[in-house]
TrEMBL record, chains A, B:
The lineage of its organism: Bacteria, Bacillati, Bacillota, Clostridia, Eubacteriales. PROSITE patterns: 4FE4S (PS51656). GO terms for biological process: Mo-molybdopterin cofactor biosynthetic process. This is Molybdopterin-guanine dinucleotide biosynthesis adapter protein MobB. It comes from the Bacteria. Gene3D superfamilies: P-loop containing nucleotide triphosphate hydrolases.
Amino acid sequence: MKVFSVRGITQSGKTTTIENIIKELKKRRYSVGSVKDIHFEEFAIDQEGTNTYRHRRAGSELVTARGHYETDILFPEKLNVEEILRFYNQDFVVLEGVEDTNAPKIITAHDVKEVEERIDGTVFAISGRIANTLQEYKGVPVINAMSDVEKLVDLIEEKVYEKLPEFSGECCCACGYSCRELGIKILKGEAKREDCILGEENIKLSINQQEISMVPFVQKILYNAVMGVVAELEGYHKGSNIQIKVGER
Amino acid sequence: MKVFSVRGITQSGKTTTIENIIKELKKRRYSVGSVKDIHFEEFAIDQEGTNTYRHRRAGSELVTARGHYETDILFPEKLNVEEILRFYNQDFVVLEGVEDTNAPKIITAHDVKEVEERIDGTVFAISGRIANTLQEYKGVPVINAMSDVEKLVDLIEEKVYEKLPEFSGECCCACGYSCRELGIKILKGEAKREDCILGEENIKLSINQQEISMVPFVQKILYNAVMGVVAELEGYHKGSNIQIKVGER
């Protein structure tokens, strides 16, 4: 699953850029999901007076509205983006206005000043209104998402890598970098996605609460034994977190 | 997690009954979640013209709207109730108008005719408008959820059992019954929740923090796959507690 974000202030062309990108990705036969951050203090998707609104007001802590053609799960809190992405398994996921991520980023902007406020090593393209006046800024291509969407999506295909684990800087660094640092290096062409050494053998074993170190060979055998069964079960998709407990109730 | 449903036609007092039950359960310090089925053909929680609406229209297959105080995950399909319940971990979950479940049931109705159309072995109480005129119907108590909510919630505490796996009739039947049949027997007092023998192998599997129910056959295969490797490792002895995690640190 490849994840990227589009950031920019209101009216800079953010949603239009995303619409065009999604349409083009779909045209190329990818599955696509999206997450939209809403920075409007009073945002509430449910309308006063609906039955689900009445459930929540009475004290229901998690409310689902299920219609004939949709199922809406309404969490009464701001989940972090990693929690949200656990529900996704599309080829590409676009994040709109999401801040708590190190995913590769497209900036939309009116002008250079807005770009300057947002640019960092995670940015691989610039779009939005500024694309009418500029073609490149500090080595980052500026692309019009209306007239040149193919070019922008070519760049997404080229640059956006399989989602990194996004461990906090202190937590893993098994490759020598934080996930953010490795991501920036991948975009620059100084590292590869495969340099993240947490691959499919990312498996941990504890016996009576003591973590057991396993050489890669044993890790691989245990991984294959577990996944040979679990991958066939409903509820599993690639990248799922799996936990198995034996001997405890 | 204990799950029950409230069924009845429009204006029979369904949502009011649920509101009162939720409030009383909360007063008793339980955590509560709810699922509402909307039988209105054109139901769509998202409004035309919102950015998330634009995402979906462009082709996004899973859209999340995240505000400061809520996160709304909008699946573009009718998930089945078992899939929905994987997101829940409250003490009690109330289902409103949900048909694809064998959970214990409260009927709300205007009159005996409506009760007659809906009553079966899964019904443990009757409420709604009919409670103004009747106290019992064919051995099932009729309780007013406005004036007698304590009595109704006492009955919920007494009758509603820890959710059964809800495997289809052909699938498990390891206890000798389908989940529906066992549920009816539990309500009648002819069986106990513990008669559901799933869990005997003492192996538990979670995928993305959601516990996955496995029929005994699958439990056994997973148990053997795991133990075939782990039992050979230093640190293991018979009866050890084992924990395996894949994809997390």
